[in-house]
Amino acid sequence: MPGTHLGRKRRLGEEMSTITTIRKGALEASIDSQGAQLMSLKLDGNEYLWQGDERFWPRRAPILFPIVGCLRNNFAKSAAGEVRLGRHGLARNYDHRIVEKTENSVTFELESTPETLRAYPYAFRLNMTYAVDGERMLQRFTVTNAGDEIMPFTLGGHPAFNVPAPKADGESFDDYELRFTRPWTAVSPAVDTDGLCDFDRPFTLFEDADALPLSHGLFDKYLTLTFQDVPGRTVTLLGTKSGRGVELDFDDFPYLGVWSAPGAPFVAIEPWRGVATCHDESDIFEEKRGMESLDLGEEVSYEFSVSPF
After folding, report:
1. Which of 68, 293, 295, 303 is least surrounded by Cβ atoms within 10 Å, i.e. has the fewest?
2. CA dihedral 235, 239, 245, 249 (to 10 degrees)
3. What are the Cα distances from residue 264, in Å, to 53, 164, 173, 248, 300?
4. The pLDDT value given to residue 98
5. pLDDT tens, position by position, 152-162
């Protein structure tokens, strides 16, 4: 079957994965072949990406495929058979091979295997491209249906950023906000302790405003914030005293998740194509919010960018 020979989990005793660094001008990014995960994003040598900490959250910027969030009981039914996936899918769990590399870009590839087909019964090829242009880092997902039937999927990013930002002396977590391009009203679905969305219990985060002040209490109360229809599909994580932070542009992504672990010095800003299983949905995989389908041999690409400052 096409697309069934590459990509595997790293097991105890195996060689470590490969870290690849790309750079242009003052901007530098490092990516791990394990999960094709961004591991570092530096501007002028200053680290903007969360570096992982078992006390809070060990990951840094996992890729989400072929689901975002959770399935109810980690299970769904699809036209090709049962889907059994943990939180955020399977791509983050496997080693991805490098298929193209330049000084300022790298492309990784993961193809389905007999093991992935047991969890997600569709043959796929996933290419992750990272590129820097001196001011921003671009992250592109390219998905190809490598099988013989229509393939349902969704995807997303999950980069987390240091708060306070580097060289933001004297700032605290509470000095940060999410800044938007214009005033608007943001309404989020509730998220339960199982990670499922409840669009029947929405809450209003703010009305007719262009900023949301951040605090640990905000995330303790709501767990995860899920934005839709973000103006211009642009958001800035901004230190109100230092003026430092990051800007994300995510025109290809209709949802934006924002999350932090209890007491943690980071904020994850997550462009999503879909969301977790919702209370008002069945367990039919193809019927999930944000699910899309690729015809045989079809390929599609989506990208977002991160600009530290």
Report:
1. 295
2. 10
3. 9, 11, 9, 21, 35
4. 98
5. 999 999 999 99
